[in-house]
Specification:
- By secondary structure, the chain is α/β, with parallel strands linked by helices.
- It has 2 domains: about 170 residues, 3-Layer(aba) Sandwich (Leucine Aminopeptidase, subunit E, domain 1), CATH 3.40.220.10; about 300 residues, Zn peptidases (Aminopeptidase), CATH 3.40.630.
- About 35% of the residues lie in helices and about 20% in strands.
- The protein contains 14 helices and 20 strands.
- Strands 7, 8, 9, 10, 11, 14, 15, 16 and 18 form a 9-stranded mixed sheet that branches. Strands 1-6-5-2-4-3 form a 6-stranded mixed sheet, covered by helices on one side. A 3-stranded mixed sheet has the order 12-13-17.
- Helix 3 packs parallel to helix 4, helix 9 crosses helix 14 and helix 12 packs across helix 14.
- The protein is elongated and about 80 Å long.
């Protein structure tokens, strides 16, 4: 989609549809919206007075102009109460409108100042929100659909401003929004791919392209190199599949030193059958999404490299398949991680924490200033938070506060979960240093406590995206399937850390 900014009056723009906003309980339209309403003989005002246009968030009303203005349609989107409108409301409203119009085969859209004049929303962040909303909202994954495809594609979005002075700020916001949204959509593409098209080797292919396109250092560790490093936990998971494991390291050097300011670690299980502890067949097809964390950190570093913050960021993805076979690990087996810690296997379906143990141990030896790992780790987190909120677990309050703030800016909700030492007791093993599944209850917390064993005192946040990585219902700028969470949060975090 092409997104551009022009100066002018939206009422004079020739386009497939012009999008305007309406606040809840608003009795009278103002500015350009009032001019459009007048040109339409008061059609919008009548719909408001009749209660058909209520201004509620998510509401989309299409009015055909019938030649009264150059735009073929006027789309009124609900913004909610004016004093409660935040940036995410703008992002969501644009997404709902654009998705609605794309289904009507509209190919070009113009956007009036939807919420731009609300205090606290500057021209730049407004334009960023519009760009993100449009690109995220119309995302589709059709790569494997053959034959004639009758679905339309929104190809052009124009942001209209009456002020020539703010064009530069708007264009800057559009560019940042485009970079971040396209990164989230890259992650969505990776997760939506079936596992026969997104193997560990395929993930390295994506990483290679990112490295080439954005001048990022890339290292791929193969099985023999992992063996030399003692990554017994990761290799234990991988041994049930004929797909070779890969250990992906992307290194963006934007800071002035050689140290690592931020390490991003993403779980990369390209398909999770559960191994010998096999999952039920219902919805097992969705287990192609178990590499969502890996996709997120690859996509995030691609956006970070384009935005060029003055910070050093490394992204690490341990990539494997978890399948049952004659060579697969079994409950009761003991594996040795890169740190030398021994792990008793209680369930082979708790494999994500095993590959992350080696990844966290690997990067922790580099002494990063902060680590954030991202993983579709536990069904328990879905039970606790559903698919609305990501769970955060941490050993450092300052860092987790920064992650939560970065998520709030992106509209990606994050809730901090407890990490009391008492939960560690559930992970104690009688035959090894630790076991990979805790006792009954608090599954997401005991999983996080397991990971904490491999970061020592390094400031660390674990994001459990089991519920937020893949959804079956549209909501705001999130579409069915992969969500791209938490790519935009990670990018915001890196930018914020660079500015400190």
């Amino acid at each position: 989609m092409e997104i551009k900014v022009i100066a002018g009056d939206v009422i004079h723009v020739e386009t497939g549809a012009v999008v305007i906003g309406c606040f809840k309980e608003e009795k009278r339209l103002g500015g350009e919206s009032a001019a459009i309403d007048e040109a339409l003989d008061g059609a919008i005002s009548r719909l408001i007075s009749q209660g058909e246009v209520k201004g509620k968030p998510g509401e989309v009303t299409i009015i055909h102009s019938l030649g009264r203005i150059p735009a073929a349609r006027v789309v009124v989107v609900g913004l909610g109460k004016k004093d409660e409108l935040k940036l995410d409301g703008v992002r969501s409203a644009v997404a709902e409108a654009c998705r609605h119009l794309q289904r009507k085969d509209v190919t070009d859209v113009a956007v009036d100042a939807i919420g731009k004049d609300v205090p606290g929303i500057t021209a730049e962040v407004y334009a960023q929100a519009v760009a993100e909303g449009a690109l995220l909202g119309v995302y589709t994954f059709r790569r494997h659909i053959t034959g004639e495809n009758n679905k339309g594609e929104l190809k052009k979005l124009t942001i209209i401003s009456k002020s020539k002075e703010e064009i530069t700020s708007l264009e800057k916001g559009v560019e940042k929004g485009r970079i971040i949204a396209e990164a989230a959509n890259m992650a969505r593409d990776m997760v939506n791919e079936p596992s026969n098209y997104m193997t560990p080797t395929d993930m390295t292919g994506v990483a290679k392209k990112v490295a080439e396109d954005y001048n990022i250092d890339l290292t791929i560790l193969e099985k023999n190199e992992m063996q030399k490093l003692g990554m017994g936990a990761l290799l234990g998971v991988a041994q049930g599949s004929c797909q070779p494991p890969k250990f992906i390291v992307l290194n963006y050097k934007g800071g002035g030193s050689d140290g690592i300011d931020l390490a991003l670690v993403g779980k990369g299980v390209t398909f999770d059958s559960g191994g010998i502890s096999i999952k039920p067949s219902a919805k097992m097809d969705e287990m192609k999404d178990d590499m969502s964390g890996g996709a997120a950190v690859i996509a995030a570093i691609s956006a970070i490299a384009q935005l060029k913050p003055k910070i050093n960021v490394i992204s690490i993805v341990p990539a494997v398949e978890n399948l049952p076979s004659g060579t697969a690990i079994k409950p009761g087996d003991i594996l040795t991680a890169i740190t030398g810690k021994t792990i008793e296997i209680i369930s082979t379906d708790a494999e994500g924490r095993l590959i992350l143990a080696d990844a966290l141990g690997y990067v922790n030896k580099m002494k990063p200033k902060a680590i954030v790992d991202v993983a579709t780790l536990t069904g328990a987190c879905i039970v606790a938070l559903g698919n609305i909120c990501t769970g955060a677990f941490s050993n450092n309050q300052r860092l987790v506060d920064g992650v939560i703030a970065a998520g709030a800016e992106a509209g990606e909700l994050i809730w901090q979960m407890p990490m009391y030492d008492e939960y560690k007791e559930q992970n104690k093993s009688n035959v090894a240093d630790i076991k990979n599944v805790g006792d009954k209850g608090a599954g997401s917390i005991t999983a996080a406590q397991f990971l904490a064993e491999f970061v020592d005192d390094t400031p660390w946040v674990h994001l459990d995206i089991a519920g937020t990585s893949f959804v079956d219902k549209e909501r705001k700028y999130t579409v069915k399937g992969a969500t791209g969470v938490p790519v935009r949060t990670l990018v915001n975090l890196a930018v914020a850390l660079a500015e400190k």
